[in-house]
């Protein structure tokens, strides 16, 4: 006698049913818990019939779970959709954090400084760090590399940097760990 197939956890079923209600083909969607990210990962395959018109429904069905599309262009469009949806709340939260810490007034902005080259060291100094200590430019992306976190006060300074980047007008942001870089990586 064959054993019954393993039961799919209730929440995964709920997400699958939600995506099916959006009009997606269930057999082209996978939902699984990924221990490495401690969250569900939803992969929407090319055969699911997903279109940009489905994005709002997909977002409602999956909440804050990780969604990927096999179609790279559709995945990029979904990321832009999420940015548009969540950007105002993220900016408001970052602004509130800076205001609470007394750091909103005098905050350097991309518009005010005129270039990333001038903005990045100005933000670091504004947040109490040395110029060139955690922010680096890689093409059009600002990389946050907190390589010198030596005490808990530095963590607050990095939190300031992250909030300041949001409020100052930086749109392309990357983050490279929080462990100290080895001498050969610099």
Structure description:
It contains six helices and six strands. It is an alpha/beta fold. The chain has two domains: 10-86, no CATH class; 103-185, no CATH class. Strand 5 (141-144), helix 6 and strand 6 (173-175) form a beta-alpha-beta unit. The protein is elongated. The N and C termini lie far apart (61 Å).
Q: Indicate how many domains the architecture comprises.
A: 2
Structural class: alpha/beta
Main sheet: which strands, in order across?
1-2-3
Oligomer: single chain
Task: List the keywords.
186 residues; three-stranded mixed sheet; 6 strands; 44% helix; 15% strand; disordered C terminus
Offer a concise description of the structure.
Helices cover 44% and strands 15% of the residues.
Write the layout of secondary structure elements.
Blueprint: H1 10-21, E1 29-34, E2 39-44, H2 55-62, E3 66-69, H3 72-100, H4 110-113, H5 116-126, E4 135-138, E5 141-144, H6 152-168, E6 173-175
Parallel strand pairs: 2-3, 5-6
Antiparallel strand pairs: 1-2, 4-5
Helix pairs in contact: 1-2, 3-6
């Amino acid at each position: 006698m064959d054993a019954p197939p393993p039961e799919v956890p209730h929440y995964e079923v709920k997400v699958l049913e939600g995506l099916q209600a959006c009009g997606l083909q269930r057999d082209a969607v996978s939902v699984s818990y990924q221990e490495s990210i401690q969250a569900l990962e939803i992969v929407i395959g090319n055969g699911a019939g997903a279109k940009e018109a489905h994005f709002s429904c997909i977002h409602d069905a999956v909440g804050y779970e990780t969604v990927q599309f096999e179609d790279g262009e559709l995945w990029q469009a979904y990321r832009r959709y999420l940015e548009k949806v969540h950007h105002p709340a993220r900016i408001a939260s970052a602004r509130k954090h800076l205001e609470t810490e007394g750091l909103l007034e005098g905050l350097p902005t991309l518009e005010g400084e005129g270039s990333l080259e001038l903005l990045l060291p100005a933000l670091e100094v504004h947040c109490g760090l040395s110029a060139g200590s955690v922010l680096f430019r890689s093409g059009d992306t600002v990389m946050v590399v907190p390589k010198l976190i030596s005490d808990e006060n530095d963590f607050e300074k990095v939190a300031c940097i992250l909030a300041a980047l949001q409020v100052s007008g930086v749109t392309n942001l990357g983050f490279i760990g929080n462990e100290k870089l080895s001498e050969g990586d610099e």
